[in-house]
Amino acid sequence: MLGNFEYCNPTKLYFGEDSLNYLNTELSKYGDNIVLIYGGGSIKKNGIYDDVCRILKDNGKNVAEISGVMPNPTLEKLYEGVEIARNHHADLLLAVGGGSVCDYAKAVSVSVNCQEDPWEKYYLRFEEPDCETLPVGCVLTMVGTGSEMNAGAVITNHETKLKIGHVFADEKVMPRFSILNPKYTLTLPHYQMVAGIYDIFNHICEQYFSGEDDNTSDYISEGLMRSLLHSSRIANKDPQNYEARSNIMWTATWALNTLVAKGKSTDWMVHMLGQSVGAYTDATHGMTLAAVSLPYYRYIMPYGLAKFKRFAVNVWDVDPAGKSDGQIAEEGLKAMESWMKELGLVMNISELGATEEMLDGIADGTLIMEGGYKVLDRDEVKEILKESM
Hints:
six-stranded parallel β-sheet
């Protein structure tokens, strides 16, 4: 492994069918004023809302709510949440939902006591909080983002058509605790389930496709990918299979809790492309990633051929005998494409609502990252987007 790094992950996890019981333990650590944050109301239909509210009441908490957090949380929604949390004098932000709800809670956390506009400070200048932040706890109901154990928060500005994620360096932005009950994920529609699965897979790829050294992180990543492939195929046929869904949930957490990034430069261009598509289409995050992945990977493959060959052999069991490195690598991407189609993922951005007229704007809104095998210019970004159509 090359380079120097530090590693600390302060998030405490409670995993399993009885994990919500531990909310009682965690609530005792915080003051009485809780802001409960959730999305469109599915937690009221499946009973999770009632269970959480009962625990909050039993612990004597004074609760305010931020409801209606959308899959791609907007800047306007962030401003609304900040006002609610300020007025309630919040001691803890409790996010109940998927990754977007957890992301949103972290964005509120760093913004409540911020004296500047949070969009300017955190999402345009990418500064760290210099104010007191509010603690965040998560009850996860949908997997994919890994937001339950990292410091990332993605916000969409519809006015400027920018969707930007800030992974905060300060570990205090990470959730103090997260509750992971795989049963909560069993009611998800198939479309959302497979979008989350691909989000997990691409998180690993974004870190894996960087660097040329012999890195322990790559071996861990290959194991996580193989586990996900196995469980995803079971869940695709039988979404109620608890074992498969629990493994997917656990893989999602380890895919993006900063562990496998250690010693890696990391890429993240698929996310930059997908997020820019999402800013124009408001499409489901995992599907935007799926739609741009293969054109991007085929474009950069010659620049990282050794890793793509390893990916084909170690993840997809491609037999290398009698084949060139390029043939092996391409066979791995074809195997990946077949798996994606098997799950029912969206394979082009036009299916998500992107049009030719949007491509210049999407290209302009794509942040260029420098950690992968090829640093793209704007013309290359647009060419990849055209291939993604």
